[in-house]
Amino acid sequence: MTQVFNFSAGPAVLPKEVLQQAAAEMLDWHGSGMSVMEMSHRGPEFISIYKQAESDLRELLAVPANYKILFMQGGGLGMNAVIPLNLLGRVREPATPGPAVIDFVHTGSWSGKSLKEAARYANVNVAASSQAEGFTHVPPEDAWKLTEGAAYLHVCTNETIDGVEYNFVPRVSDGVPLVADMSSHILSRQIDVSKYGVIFAGAQKNIGPAGLTLVIVREDLLEHALPICPSAFHWKNVAEHESMFNTPPTYGIYIAGLVFAHLKALGGVAAMEQRNIEKARLLYAALDQDDFYSNRVDVSCRSRMNIPFYLRDESLNEKFLAGAKARGLLQLKGHKSVGGMRASIYNAMPIEGVQALVDYLNEFAGR
Ligand code: PMP
Questions:
Q1: What is the ipTM of this complex?
Q2: N6-(pyridoxal phosphate)lysine-modified residues are where (predicted)?
């Protein structure tokens, strides 16, 4: 088999060991005679897979007992609607007159999409934005114009397209839940779940196949859905049925479970974080060496997962990509909205892959 390194932003590279195990178990899971894909979600075999995945994830992220882990569908964009539908029914403390306001910090494409969708359900206040500066940083927290009694504050803690990552947990007033889109960096660094009301993530980067969407929600926030919230997306309903109110994405949960077990065997999230710091350091150092390449993000909030970069001479873009492909370095083309290049180096990207990219960057730059 050809050795390649896949830098796709998602769906993205998965650990080889996980894919090998899934292949070995494809036709007959643990002597059951069935593929996981063929199992009833209510049967004892799948229930055991689900329970193990849930408890391994709880352990990996040290999820406190008063938080529910929900395995859902709908993707990150689906959640942009599901969140307001689940949270806007809340009686706000302190009691605030007028319609509900959702606070947003606009740091890139994904928080931008989230706020646009939320505006269909409530008034949106952009508490801070780095749009005018081309989304190159997280606006300093002391300049955020938060709304007293906001329904919640929504942030995207890693902007996959813009390559901007939070290196702090935003402060919120008492009673204002903090909602975080962690789609593209969950499990890549240690987090304090207790600081958040809701954490959500599409699976297709650091967790498993597309189609599974993870929600971690504090229990008291299960009570605030609007009456029009669809039953299958009503978190309380989903939690009460242990993610089986309707048929969950069973195969995705199975693969996610294999990924969680794999991460535990590697030393958990703390160990992944150390590896990710090292991988990002290696790549940024090559990009920063001279002005042949550039990454425009403020050094304090450069993403460890998604690293957009530009060639000084953009007429060389196609040549760069063709040369990369010839070396098995795949999917380096930047998102169409921003152009340039992007290397996504999720947990499953080995350091050898980053080193191979660095070698190619140096070679192409004639260093
Ligand atoms: N949020 C972030 C941070 C993302 O990177 C993405 C997808 N790349 C989404 C949301 C949207 O996810 P989906 O396509 O699963 O709806």
A1: 0.99
A2: 205
